[in-house]
Design a protein that fits this description.
Helix content is 48%, strand content 9%. The chain is an alpha/beta fold. The protein folds into two domains: 134 residues, 3-Layer(aba) Sandwich (Rossmann fold), CATH 3.40.50; 59 residues. β4, α5 and β5 form a beta-alpha-beta unit.
Length: 226
């Protein structure tokens, strides 16, 4: 089920994140947070990506722990990629790591220290109500007339080589972890060749160096040397 707000946090900040969710939901705003909202036996990475995509705002519980968390960085990266508004809710007085600063440099920040946090929660709820009262962005804009016309019937593309798709998934996972499985599955459904698949997957990587290395290693069959 789609929720208005996605909560991104690092495990050491679990208690603060749950306290924040309870406070926001008392205002009638639906939140999505793991693991509470992940169905039993569901694909964890797929559920997170779907939740980010369907959310309007991501609240990042920002702390020393989340600053160093690869999982948090990937969630923030996906939110930026999907044009989801991000609000870092800073519970520690720390400077963002370079990898997070790259994605958050243009975002509005909200400091939530020192404790007690109730006044900060109240400010956050007021901010969310204001943001969510605005019309949806172009991500959810109504289609124009041309886009509502029936699509032309095209010849089906030949299926991709399963072994090569699996190889691309394993290689991508070396860079971004288990979330690669969901990204490869989604990309494979949109492309008509393995070369196009690799190009699309390379766009999921953060740096030009990684994108070039990923492409070359897929072409040569070499594993990631890290």
């Amino acid at each position: 089920m789609a929720r208005e707000v996605f909560i991104s946090y690092s495990q050491p900040d679990h208690d603060c994140a749950m306290e924040l969710v309870a406070r926001i939901e008392r205002e009638g705003i639906d939140c999505w947070i793991a693991p509470r909202d992940i169905a039993p036996s569901a694909d964890w990475a797929a559920e997170i990506i779907d939740a980010i995509t369907s959310s309007r705002v991501m609240i990042l519980v920002f702390s020393a722990s989340s600053n160093d968390s690869p999982q948090v960085r990937r969630e923030v990266e996906r939110a930026v990629h999907k044009q989801v508004s991000i609000l870092p809710f800073r519970i520690d007085n720390v400077v963002p790591s370079k990898s997070l600063e790259y994605f958050l440099s243009s975002q509005h920040w909200m400091d939530a220290f020192p404790p007690p946090r109730e006044a900060h929660y109240a400010r956050l709820c007021a901010y969310l109500k204001n943001q969510l009262s605005k019309p949806e962005s172009s991500r959810a804009a109504a289609p124009d007339i041309a886009s509502t016309q029936p699509a032309p019937i095209l010849a089906a593309a030949p299926p991709l080589d399963t072994a090569e798709v699996v190889r691309a998934e394993r290689l991508l996972a070396g860079y971004i972890g288990p979330i690669a499985r969901h990204l490869v599955k989604a990309a494979a459904a949109r492309v008509s060749s393995l070369e196009e698949l690799v190009v699309q997957l390379s766009k999921e990587l953060e740096t030009e160096t990684d994108r070039h290395e990923f492409t070359q290693r897929w072409r040569t069959g070499a594993p990631r040397a890290r």
